[in-house]
Each structure stands twice: as C-alpha cells, then as structure tokens.
Design brief:
- With 157 residues, the protein is mainly α.
- The protein is built from 9 helices and 2 strands, in the order E-E-H-H-H-H-H-H-H-H-H.
Length: 157
C-alpha cells in the first residue's frame, strides 16, 4: 500500500495508547472519502481480532460512538478524554500491557497469525525487510521504516 496522507503510524501514541491515533485518522479519512478501499474493510469493530475491534473493546466504547465523537471535531486528546469518561479509564499498567500486546502482534504469535503476517509481507513485496510484527508491516507497507526509527522505543504508559 502506498503512503496515505494524514494516516499516522500505529506506533504513534495518543495519551498513553498506541494505535488509537491511527484509528481516529482512519475514521476522519473514511468520512472524507480519502481512505483507500483496502483499508475500509477493516474499519470498525465488526471483525473480532482486528485492531479497531480490539481497541474499542479495550476502551469499552463501541466504534460507532467513537466515530461520532471523532467527527464532531476537537483534538485527539479531547476525544480520548471523552472515551475514558464514557468507557473505562485504564491504569498505567493496563496501558503498558495494551501497548506491549499490540506492538508485538505477529511476533512469536499463534501459528495462524504469524503465517498471516508472513503472507502479508510476501503480498506486499516486502521480503527481506526486518518485519517482525504487524505494526512493522504496516509502517513498511506505507513507506515508513520503524526499525531505523526504532518506533517502539519510548512507547511506555
């Protein structure tokens, strides 16, 4: 997939959480018709196990509610504040576990998930890149190099 303007890395944090900013970007881009079709099929919380669905479950707020709030405007931090008031404010430890879990998806994971990651790497023509996780794959696939940038460093609660 080529670079998608205004779609940030899954490693980028909003508050204490990785991935949430990317989900908010996808919501906004989709509402403007700027989200590539390949991304649209994984938007929302209807597919268990996908990042959006996991994020909504962790936050305790349905995707459609987060979508409505994100499209009302305001900063990502204001949206996160609203989410935490509506759902559940997570402890620093829960955020640390969440960040660690998501950042490592695909790395020494269930065989079917690890195989899916390798299949995506092959489909993306990214063989030979130091891709160990889905976050790495997403970044390389979109033209970022998380390994050189050491994107995972400093991602703490």
């Amino acid at each position: 997939m080529p670079h998608v303007p205004d779609l940030r890395s899954p490693y980028a944090k909003v508050g204490r959480l990785v991935y949430l900013g990317r989900m908010l970007d996808k919501i906004r881009l989709h509402s403007l018709g700027k989200l590539p079709p390949d991304y649209v099929e994984n938007v929302g919380d209807s597919k268990p196990g996908m990042f959006d669905a996991r994020c909504c479950a962790f936050l305790g707020v349905a995707y459609d509610e987060i979508r409505r709030r994100a499209l009302e405007g305001g900063t990502d931090e204001a949206v996160l504040d609203w989410i935490e008031k509506r759902g559940a404010r997570r402890t620093d430890e829960e955020c640390y576990v969440w960040n660690s879990f998501l950042m490592k998806r695909g790395w020494h994971d269930q065989p079917d998930l690890a195989q899916r990651l390798q299949m995506r790497v092959r489909e993306g023509g990214l063989e030979g890149k130091p891709i160990e996780t889905f976050f790495d794959f997403i970044d390389f696939d979109e033209g970022r190099d998380p390994v050189s940038a050491r994107a995972w460093e400093g991602v703490q609660p």
